Amino acid sequence: MSVAPMLDWTDRHCRYFHRLLTRHTLLYTEMVTTGALLHGDVARHLRFNTQEHPVALQLGGSEPADLAHCALLGEQWGYDEINLNCGCPSERVQRGAFGACLMAEPQLVADCVKAMVDVASVPITVKHRIGIDKTESYDFVRDFVGTVAQAGCDVFTVHARNAWLKGLSPKENREVPPLRYELAYRLKTDFPALTIVVNGGIVGTELMHAHLQHVDGVMIGREAYHNPWTMVDW
């Protein structure tokens, strides 16, 4: 099990609290942009308590060289995994040309992943949606995963909703586009060697165990914040 990266929520204080409740759950930072690390206070963005392990750093960016530099920083600071955000639909993130809009450019994502894989020894992973806007073809997400996997990524966290880049707020993007868990299941069937983690609307341990009959992992988001005792048995 893992806890999703949530802006303004999963800071180091929240993660430390979660670690008091669960020994093995993988915890994620808030998304940290490459610009914040290249031009800002690195320590403020990357410091964490060693008791948080296992903990992953999520990066937002779309320039391979910048991401490589930041992935190396993340490894040097002791993170167990570096994750690339390909799922955030906010307009601010779109203006930065990263997040969910990157799903339209799978080769660019592959280049970003390869640049990070080449410099870092920790796992490089991707969190993404099942589609963007009204594109609901399974082929879209299948081809995205297939292209990025060839660059050296073998862990994909699938938020099982489309990201509507226009017309919906980030909050609405977590609620309005329908959940289609079956697409994540199909990815696991089509790419059995990859680790597929499903995310989106997962509440309660019964549903978590049901998903684990089809995929390798589950990621919870707001459930970890509103009902943290969910994690006690993990």
Question: Considering DSSP H and I runs of 4 or more, what fraction of the residues is helical?
Answer: 25-40%
Structural class: alpha/beta
Query: Uncertain segments of ≥5 residues (pLDDT<50)?
Result: none
* Order of secondary-structure elements: EHEHHEHEHHEHEHHEHEH
What average pLDDT do the residues reach? 96
**Computed Rg:** 16 Å
Q: How many extended strands? A: 8
Please give a quick description of this structure.
The protein has 234 residues and is of the alpha/beta class.
List the helices and strands and how they pair.
Layout (H helix, E strand, L loop, with lengths): L1 E2 L8 H10 L4 E8 H6 L2 H5 L8 E6 L3 H13 L4 E6 L4 H5 L10 H14 L4 E9 L5 H12 L5 E9 L6 H4 L7 H10 L4 E5 L5 H7 L5 E4 L1 H5 L8
Helix pairs in contact: 4-6, 6-7
Could you please describe the fold and organization of this structure?
By secondary structure, the chain is of the alpha/beta class. The chain has helices at 12-21, 34-39, 42-46, 64-76, 91-95, 106-119, 138-149, 170-173, 181-190, 205-211, 222-226, and strands at residues 2-3, 26-33, 55-60, 81-86, 124-132, 155-163, 195-199, 217-220. An 8-stranded parallel beta barrel has the order 1-2-3-4-5-6-7-8, surrounded by 5 helices. Helix 4 runs parallel beside helix 6 (106-119) and helix 6 runs parallel beside helix 7.
